[in-house]
Each structure stands twice: as structure tokens, then as C-alpha cells.
Amino acid sequence: VQLQESGPGLVKPSQTLSLTCTVSGGSISTVDYYWTWIRQPPGKGLEWIGYIAYSGGTYYNPSVMSRTSISRDTSKNQFTLQLSSVTPEDTAVYYCAKAVSPWDWGQGIQVTVSS
What does the alpha-carbon distance between residue 99 and residue 46 come to, in Å, rounded to a whole number? Predict the structure, then answer.
């Protein structure tokens, strides 16, 4: 399975960050597959943001839950992250991944929050 993140590399504070992960080589509706977003702020470790399951169900990290929405478009085999009210602390490399062993990762996309 191959994954590719896309979206803007620069977002202004208070705006909504929107990233899309395009999946190839497998269906996001495959039973028991989970699709996740993870980020890594500069100089820090990986932080799990949330996932969307093969069924469409979602689960989020409580630390960002109030600002996060993960959705999917099965016709395009894509899933999307929206993170609202961003601040500079949301600056990070954002990864999408297939969260089922063996994990498959996108290459990551740098997102900077700055005015």
C-alpha cells in the first residue's frame, strides 16, 4: 500500500489546516484496516492525532479532539485531516499511515503555521 499526503505547506494562525492522504494499492474500506494521521513537531517525538476505521468510525487523541476531524472519500480512496484554530504549536511534519501491521507510511508533509 502506498500513501501520499497533500495540502498547503503554510497555514495562518486561527485558520483550518486541511490535508489529504491518497491511498493506492489497497482500499481504505478493507475490513479491519485503520488509517491514521500522525505528526512530528520540530525537535519532538511523534504525536498520534487520530484515525478513521474501515467502517468510517473515528477516534481522536484527546489533546486535539476538540479541533480535529478525519473524514474519507471512498470513491477517491482518500482520507482527510482537518485541524481547526491552528497555532504555531501545530507546526510539524504530518504523516498519514495504514495502522495495521505491517504499517505503511506516507513520506510526510511539512506544515508551518505562521502569519
Answer: 14
- Res 83: pLDDT: 98
- Rounded Cα–Cα distance for residues 10 and 8 (Å): 6
Q: Is the four-CA dihedral 62, 28, 90, 67 of positive or negative sign? A: negative
| Total Cβ atoms within 10 A of residue 74 | 12
| 10/61 Cα distance (integer angstroms) | 23
Confidence grade of residue 17 (pLDDT, cut at 50, 70, 90): very high
Kindly state the percentage of the chain with pLDDT values over 90: 99
Take residue 78 and report the three cell numbers written for it. Answer: 482518500
Can you tell me whether residue 46 is helix, strand or coil? coil
44 Cβ neighbours under 8 A, 6+ residues apart: none
Question: From CA 55, how far away is CA 104, in angstroms rounded?
Answer: 19
| C-alpha cell recorded at residue 29 | 474500506
